[in-house]
Amino acid sequence: MTIDGAIVALLAEQLESAELNRAPMTKITDTYPDLDMDDAYAIQDELRRRKTARGVRVAGLKAGLTSQAKMKQMNVSEPVFGFMCDYGSRADGGEVEIDGFIAPRVEAEIAFVTKSEIKGPCHIGTVLQAIDFVLPAVEILDSRYENFKFDLVSVVADNTSAAGFVTGGNSRRIDEIDVRTLGIVLEKNGEIVELAAGAAVLGHPAESVVMLANMLARKGQVIPAGTFIMTGGVTAAVGVKRGDHISVRYQHLGSVSMRFV
Ligand code: OOG
Ligand code: MG
Fold this sequence. Notes:
Blueprint: H1 5-21, H2 28-31, H3 37-53, E1 58-64, H4 68-74, E2 80-85, E3 89-90, E4 94-96, E5 105-114, H5 124-130, E6 131-141, H6 152-157, E7 162-167, E8 172-173, E9 183-188, E10 191-197, H7 206-218, E11 228-233, E12 238-239, E13 245-250, E14 254-260
Parallel strand pairs: 1-11, 3-7, 4-14
Antiparallel strand pairs: 1-2, 5-6, 5-11, 5-12, 6-7, 6-8, 9-10, 9-13, 13-14
């Protein structure tokens, strides 16, 4: 750590205000260039503490920057981890009010729900055994930094741009399907804009959960049974504006759609 609790609290407060007021800020490393990853997760933890103190509930956990497409798009080379909030949930097939965000982007993801606790350090076998089912999810990202420009430390502090998510379609048991070859097609206004297969995420989306469990283990934490986990965008994220319709088709898992209004 390079900063003390007072600065952690100050930066968490600034990030939360930026989100609540939809007023983007300059990235925190512009002001504190020496921040390290421990600082970044400490700020994210403080953000989470502030939110839960206001009555927000954590809806799930997420990994991000787990595919080449995403790392290339954001110019960041390591996976990051964050959490989703209850207020970010939107209905499948419904309308999403664009004014609730600064500059939203959507990305297609494979999500898991666990049936037993996962304690790192662990490997993919442990994770596969603990996954109850697979379901399709679309993440709505929104950076609290101007123009979606950040580095690894800044994006972790900003809870990995988490803003919303839509899940739906059909769930399947993890041993019923091969999630690596599972095809995903993202359409915007009826046109295919991105497509990929599950293996785009670290060779197997369950590897995201391994990394998440190992990261949490360093803090003495586990992934509890019944946790909803988004494993990271399989494709680059797509910017949306008012009126856009997004539909993502998943092999074996149905589709997830929304319209921005
Ligand atoms: C950071 C969040 C990345 C993913 O799935 O890759 C993420 C960003 O791209 O803004 O959620
Ligand atoms: Mg994501």
